[in-house]
Amino acid sequence: MRIGVLSGKGGAGKTMMAVNLAAAGERAVYIDCDVEEPNGRLFFRPEGVTAQAVRTKLPEFDALKCTGCRKCVEFCRFHALVYIKEKPMVFEEVCHACGGCGLVCPSGAVMERERPVGQVERGRHREVEVITGVLNPGEASGVPVIRAALKAGASIGGLTIVDCPPGSACTVVESISNVDYCLLAAEPTAFGMHNFQMVYELAVLLGKPCGVVINKMDGPYPPLEDFCRENGLPILLRIPYRRRLAQMAAEGEIAVERDRAAAVVFRRLLERIGGGG
Amino acid sequence: MKKLLVLSGKGGTGKTTAAGAMIRFARAGASADCDVDAPNLHLVAGVGGQPERKRFIGSEKARINPAVCVGCGRCAELCRFQAIGEDQGAFQVREHACEGCGVCAWACPVQAVTMEEDKAGEQYLYREARVFSTARLKMGRGNTGKLVTAVKLDMMKGAPEADFAVIDGSPGIGCPVMASISGVDLVLIVAEPSLSGRSDLERLLDTVEGMRARAAVCVNKWDVSPENTAGIMDLCRMRNIPFLGKIPYDRSASDAVNKGITLAEIDCPARDALYHIYEQVSQLLALPSANLE
Fold it and tell me: Which of B121, B114, B118, B106 has the alpha carbon at shortest distance from B74?
């Protein structure tokens, strides 16, 4: 079973939930797809970490073969190419590596070289296989790194927890493309509610079954509970705001490994979702 | 126009709460929400009236006409984004994966593929109380950097005479964040005193410095971990980045949000800390004078 943990709004407790779910499973794979800010590894402190570079392609132009026809520049819909000083030049950050320039070049002047954009780290914490996608600062798109991290996890199989990026853009779609279930972390505030509705809409659009965990409850927030009831969305767990919990998260401690009650709660959550067997 | 951008790296550290307070303290003539796939600032920005709406066209998307397609599979073979799927000989574009490069349309031997405009979101410009530019990205769309730039441009065009603008950014360090950083005068980073918050702060500082923009840091909910707060202050000292202050954990913050007002309008310790930060921001930006209420 593959479970994606999402939230829309950042800081709702995605990583805390994903890490504790993975640690509560008998044997699990944890995949961090929040490649811009990967934090699961700070909780797991995995051992025996190996890293593999993630690369995308980038065109290079052979000045001897280039006839200056500019077909490549005209083809590029991302405006990543300009013709300057008698030859095409590429803007690395804008290039989507679609390969179109090479296809349309009539004189075979376009070659491609590989360019690192991030890495996938793999290590172990007790019974959890910890896979982390890390995007290099300055890179525009995390999608290739997310794909590589998911692929590394797919080769292991079993109970898999995917920690997603915040928001509701293409990186989230990529992260949950293969999950069987979406666990939505919601924060009971007007901000949290607004982003929660957006991400719920996305999960529904992709046809994923969903359940909700309300985090940092500090008194009742009826609009969220009403929304869940009206949409037949099960609230699987309510976690109160406690300074002790915030401090554990701040220090990167895994609650289910420190606290018997937390272990029971997350084990039960996993069973309700259907990943506990 | 002096532009202040509020970022955080990690999500949920209090970016929007801080941005809302800055707008109010400064009575900023212009503001924008660049967190286009999870926008929230409009909930507290004190905007009035109906916004002007505008469609945002992102990249194009490919469409395969099944009546023309001969099923050769050349498009699927060349697509680098695994955006073309086959179901019993019928080829279809997976719209979320398609980046609109046009390779499939170029490769199709029978012209079954067309490239079509795709509405990737909607922009909103409020003018009544003050100029506020925001947008909402359509579910699962990419191109957020382009939309972020459009939101900022609309804000500047909408309030050409404003001398101070506050922009709320998105979490992370990717394309939308970089697009929001370009052209601002100061990036105020709201950090969280946790191992995650610190790690995210460092990655964000690398990104901001890589773009040669100016950064300053404050810590929110500092009393959750005084040790990590001290660590972040050391980090700022080492990297020679101004540290502007510490905001305590304050329940009033979520109360304010739920009432649809900024923290600046509630008398509480977090407001005082934010005001102190605002004063330093005005000094760093050499704003004419603090517009106190």
Answer: B106
Q: What is the DSSP letter of B223?
A: G
Query: How many CB atoms are closer than 10 A to CB B279?
Result: 16
CA distance A19 to A207: 25
- Residue A142 near residue A13, CB atoms below 8 Å: no
* Count of pairs with CB atoms under 8 A, one residue in A, one in B: 185
Q: Three-state SS for A52?
A: strand
User: How close A215 comes to chain B (CA, Å)?
Assistant: 12
Q: Is-contact B71 B89, C-beta < 8 A?
A: yes
Query: What would the pLDDT profile of A56-69 be if each residue is shown by its tens digit?
Result: 999 999 999 999 99
A139 contact residues in B (CB cutoff 8 A): 174
Is pLDDT at B262 greater than 80 in this prediction?
yes
Q: How far apart are CA A239 and CA A217, in angstroms?
A: 6
Best mutation site among B42, B82, B103, B116 for testing chain A: the one with the most A CBs within 10 Å?
B103
Which B residues in the span 162-191 are in contact with A, Cβ-Cβ below 8 Å?
170-175, 177-178
pLDDT of B144 > 80? The answer is: no
Topology agreement, domain A2-54+122-273 and domain A63-108: no
Q: Tens of pLDDT along B27-60? A: 999 999 999 988 999 998 878 789 999 999 988 9
Closest to A149 in 3D by CA, of A139, A159, A137, A164? A164
CB contact at 8 A, A135 and B173: yes
Residue ranges covered by each domain of chain A: 2-54+122-273, 63-108
Cβ-defined contact of B139 to A198 (cutoff 8 Å): yes
CA distance B174 to B144: 10
CATH architecture of A2-54+122-273: 3-Layer(aba) Sandwich (3.40)
Confidence label for B4 from pLDDT (cuts 50, 70 and 90)? very high
Q: Report ipTM for this prediction.
A: 0.90
Q: For the whole model, what pTM was predicted? A: 0.93
At the topology level, CATH places domain A63-108 in Alpha-Beta Plaits (3.30.70)
Tell me the mean pLDDT in the region A27-34: 97
Confidence of residue A277 (pLDDT cuts 50, 70, 90): very low
What's the confidence (pLDDT) of residue B293? 43
Task: Compare CB distances from A189 to B103, B115, B257 and report the shortest one's residue.
Answer: B257
